[in-house]
Design goal:
Order of helices and strands: HHHEEHEHEHEEEHEHEHEEHE
CATH superfamily of the largest domain: Periplasmic binding protein-like II
Strand content: 15-25%
CATH architecture of the largest domain: 3-Layer(aba) Sandwich
Largest sheet: 8 strands, mixed
Number of strands: 12
Number of helices: 10
CATH topology of the largest domain: D-Maltodextrin-Binding Protein, domain 2
Structural class: alpha/beta
Length: about 325
């Protein structure tokens, strides 16, 4: 019987997959939390084990060889399967133990996380909840790549392979300066949005897209020229307080954000008010899907005290 061939290690495959993704040794090393020499050594060891050249190193950049391009696909598939194996093993253990990597969008995190964290602390004390605040596109990418387990964000996503567990619907509220003609009013028609100087979040925030959709539904052909935007709701509200325009806030954010200034008023739309839906999202067929569905049910109960309309699963 011939000598058994050496097999690549997971560390070698992980190092090469990172190089294939970033095409840069320093960036790849940072992405997987190792040093550049260690990463380079792991890739060289993989080349020796496989007996093929995987990368072409130049003074300026890293290129994959033809063999490297093919093997990168296989390496990523192996790592994905190992991740699924670990998730399966974690699910077999006692439920609600081990790590749960939760991704949350910035327009939800400050207002819902207190409820989420309190629930996990009280009901699931053995769960290692790890929170990552990112924009929607990054969260969806992280869920698909296995970097995240569960998302808390606005839906619908319309992403194949992702299952949404609706939690609640909430109205949008108009936030204005003190002297604005719509400040403090109720029963505001959506058509009023046609003429307003609406302040928006930066590109990439789903709340920006939702605000623009609401304007289009109100019959507004497009947004007024955007000269001022903000990276977060806190800055956006301060711009309103300074008289630069008006904005839309989800109802869960109103108490927190408007309490920071005495120069603001809130206005409420006539029914049916514009709304957004917030949900948990998981990979379809996730090994821990039963846990995630139970967590969603527990969250619906915990959210009863917020100004939202809970969606029964």
């Amino acid at each position: 019987m011939g000598a058994r061939k050496r097999q690549p290690s997971l560390a070698q495959l992980r190092a090469f997959a990172a190089v294939a993704e970033y095409l840069h040794f320093r960036d790849a090393a940072a992405a997987i939390g190792t040093s550049q020499p260690a990463l380079s050594g792991a890739v060289s060891a993989l080349e020796e084990t496989l007996g093929v050249s995987l990368v072409e190193r130049t003074t300026r950049k890293v290129l994959l060889s033809p063999a490297g391009e093919r093997i990168a696909v296989r390496a990523r598939a192996v790592l994905d399967e190992v991740g699924a194996l670990m998730e399966e093993a974690e699910a077999v253990r006692a439920p609600f133990t081990g790590a749960l990597r939760l991704g949350v969008i910035p327009t939800v995190a400050p207002y819902l996380l207190p409820t989420v964290l309190r629930l996990v602390h009280d009901k699931y004390p053995d769960l290692d909840l790890q929170v990552h605040e990112e924009q929607t596109s990054s969260l969806v990418e992280g869920l698909g790549a296995g970097r995240l387990d569960l998302l808390l964000l606005a839906v619908p996503l319309g992403v194949p392979g992702v299952t949404e567990l609706p939690l609640f619907d909430e109205d949008f509220v108009l936030v204005t300066p003190l002297d604005h003609w719509l400040g403090g009013r109720e029963g505001i028609p959506r058509e009023a949005l046609r003429e307003l100087q609406l302040l928006l979040l930066d590109e990439g925030h789903c709340l920006r897209d939702q605000a623009l959709d609401i304007c289009r539904e109100a019959g507004r052909a497009g947004a007024a020229p955007v000269t001022t935007t903000a990276a977060g709701l806190s800055t956006l509200v301060q711009l309103v307080a300074g008289g630069l325009g008006v904005t839309l806030l989800p109802r869960t954010a109103v108490a927190v954000e408007t309490s920071r200034s005495s120069q603001l008023l809130t206005g409420y739309f006539a029914e049916p008010a514009p709304t957004r839906r917030v949900a948990l999202a998981m990979r379809a067929g996730a090994a821990r899907s039963a846990e995630y569905e139970e967590l969603a049910a527990a969250l619906r109960t915990a959210l009863q005290g917020l100004p939202v309309r809970v969606v029964q699963g």
